[in-house]
Amino acid sequence: MTILLLSGIGNTGLPLARLLQEAKQSFLIASRSPAKLPEPFKGVAFDWFNPSTYENPFKADANIDRVYIVGPPVLDKLPQTKDFVELAIAKGVKRFVLLSAAGTPRGGLLNGKVHEYLAERGVDYAVLRPTWFNAVKQGLVASTVGNGKIAFVSADDVAAVAFRALVDEKSHNTEHIIVGPELHTYDEAAALLSGVLGRTIIYKHLTHEEGKALFQSVPLPEDYAIALLGLEKQIADGEEETHFHAEVKEVGKVHLKEYFEANREAFVA
Ligand SMILES: NC(=O)c1ccc[n+]([C@@H]2O[C@H](COP(=O)([O-])OP(=O)(O)OC[C@H]3O[C@@H](n4cnc5c(N)ncnc54)[C@H](OP(=O)(O)O)[C@@H]3O)[C@@H](O)[C@H]2O)c1
């Protein structure tokens, strides 16, 4: 039995691959550049924007029965994901684990519609809804979240929940809100990072228009940038904080300061 990772070796894909390797679990990584995957990982060519690649994983391994999904980088992730999931079901896949986000509930933006579809499709599934991870790496210096608090979670902690959802004998068939062990504003995060690096990191509070220009410079399409700004507004309004206080949740182990210490190199300009 083989687990397919539709995640490249991205933020959660790499730590998840390591956990599966340690557990001696058979797995295959779908990537746009399979030749570039580090040893000993086995990859297969896959591109969400090229449906002719959707069959590749099943040609490479006839025993795929579970799939970890990090969806296509578009605003509405349902069309491509649904096409792939229907093919996978026809090929014998029994369980899907979807990476969504705390800020996007079932039926909502981005992965919300995929969440709804999986929950209603009659397959075994789990949906991971983590708060922000590595967002710090990408956007600590500037954003529109103001003084909103976030329970930053490490990608390793998200991968640990993904691992259980994939390998546990009984499918979870539910969503998992995943938070880090403490709440921080971006100003507090910048102060922690300054302490670790030994130099001052200033967090710049952006207006909506400045935030939009920043996302579009990535570059991201305008509708995607607006959706992400909507998620940042939720943080500014204190909504991310409510996930931290949720009754049912998974709490990661890695503190933000530990994350900065472990990834110091990534922040040294
Ligand atoms: N970042 C956060 O703080 C955060 C928080 C909560 C939820 N999320 C959710 O996590 C998901 C993305 O995570 P991320 O931003 O951290 O991404 P990521 O893990 O850095 O990237 C995902 C991987 O997707 C692969 N990929 C990109 N375009 C592809 C394509 N056209 N076809 C096939 N594979 C492709 C890439 O691998 P290859 O280069 O090997 O193809 C990449 O490594 C989103 O759904 C987001 O909503 C993120």
Automatic annotation (TrEMBL):
It comes from the Eukaryota. Residues 10-168 form the NAD(P)-binding domain. InterPro entries: Ergot_Alk_Oxidoreductase, NAD(P)-bd_dom, NAD(P)-bd_dom_sf. This is NAD(P)-binding domain-containing protein. It comes from Asterophora parasitica.
